[in-house]
Amino acid sequence: MPGTELYNRIKAEIDTIQVVDMHEHHLYTEEDFLKLNVDFAIMLFQYNSDDLLSAGMTIPNFQEFWDTRGFVLRIDGSILSLEEKWSYIKPYWENVRFTGYGRAVLHSLKKLFGIEDLNDSTFRNISDKIVSLMKPSIYSKIFKGLCGFKYVLNDIDTMVAPGAFERMDRNIFHFVARFRHFTHVHLPGGIEHLENKFDRTIRNIDHLLDALDNQFDRWKQEGRIALKLADAYLRDIHYEDSTRDEAERVLRRIYTPRKHPVYPETLSLSESRPLENFITHRVLDRAEEQNLPVIIHTGIQTFPRNILGNSRAALLTNLFLKYPKIRFHLLHSSYPWMKEAACLAKQFPNVSLDLTWVQVIVPEGAREGLSHMLDTVPINKIHGFGGDYLVPFNVWGSLEVARENIAHVLADKVKTGHMTETQAVDIAWKILNRNAQEIFTFDNQV
Ligand SMILES: [Zn+2]
């Protein structure tokens, strides 16, 4: 289908759409981002590093590699030079360059620098050109200029440095809110953190719920436009309707070990589960009252080694039933269970699907999933793009892969007579722009 006149015409129309980017993780203010040391490896540090690890590469200093956005790679304790780093990564890159993540990198290199490939003769030049891009206005240059986004929904809570949220550029980013500081109070310092943040003692469930109400007031003042739940990285996403008594018992147990400083243990995730469930349901009560959409990570997790089955969207069915007024937004459309997610979106008026990140995790699967959704799900509940990146450079490449996928599927639907070309272009506008503006109140920015 790519290369045909029909595809080219639809792709050209899609390229003009001011896309709403449904999901990013840009944790640095631009000022802090520009302080980073960078080279070619910043193109590979996220997602592509998952593929590199999957291909057999080791990153002994993973946390440092992560924190420096791919700049510092240590082998046997020594930091590799630019040349050494390329030699180390190269054989693995050759094995991962054809994945969707690799495709996004190559698209971005071409668009940003006019360079066709990452290889022996380009890694130095790419590194120099990335350094030369690190100038003021880089964020607006990429998000507004290059990608032409109308809005960017940024998910940074739990990962961002203190004080950075307040300094983020509101002309570029809108924000979701995470509530793990309430559901994970069993972790060391969890209660104390909330006590400091809300300037009150917390000794029982009423205190905790009072602080939660205070948090919702603050989120409103900050203009947060949705809640975000990313628990699929830590537990299964089935939230039993645990009782207040069960939650209270957990909360009391949190204090019991602390009465004995020689036993610094805390509760495990499974022991604290009733409290976590209870608080999650109370958060959803508030979300329903305040008409806040709830974005939930469903499907494959990033970073190698996790429990895929924890992330399956069908585990959320009790929430879809209990909270009919909440718009549940299934991030990543529960890949690899996209067909199951499409059934859920068909069955439940309050469930929508989002192809964020899936477009590059598996371009072929995203096309199959979108085609299936268009046959199954009302088009007002399909959302076509979110980059899900921590640095801006691969966002354009990811957007381009998404545009290709969407053009491919729509051209196919036109060719088989399921819709006209005009209808296909209208659908592209809906899934890349209009649907998001119907569900999320982007104009509430503070
Ligand atoms: Zn994400």
Concise account of the structure shown:
The chain is α/β, with parallel strands linked by helices.
Mind explaining what this structure looks like?
There is one protein chain. The chain has 446 residues and is α/β, with parallel strands linked by helices. The protein folds into two domains: 35-133, no CATH class; 138-444, Metal-dependent hydrolases (TIM Barrel, Alpha-Beta Barrel), CATH 3.20.20.140. 48% of the residues lie in helices and 8% in strands. It contains 19 helices and ten strands. It has helices at 5-14, 30-33, 48-54, 62-67, 82-96, 100-113, 123-133, 138-146, 180-183, 190-198, 205-222, 244-258, 273-290, 317-322, 338-347, 358-361, 363-376, 395-415, 421-439; strands at 20-24, 74-75, 78-79, 151-154, 173-178, 226-229, 294-297, 328-331, 351-354, 382-383. The protein has an eight-stranded parallel β-sheet with strand order 1-4-5-6-7-8-9-10, sandwiched between helices. Strands 2-3 form a two-stranded antiparallel ribbon. Helix 15 packs parallel to helix 17 (363-376). The longest helix is centred in the C-terminal third of the chain and has 21 residues, at 395-415. It starts with a helix and ends in a 7-residue tail after the last helix. The model has no long low-confidence stretch (mean pLDDT 94). Zinc ion binds next to loops.
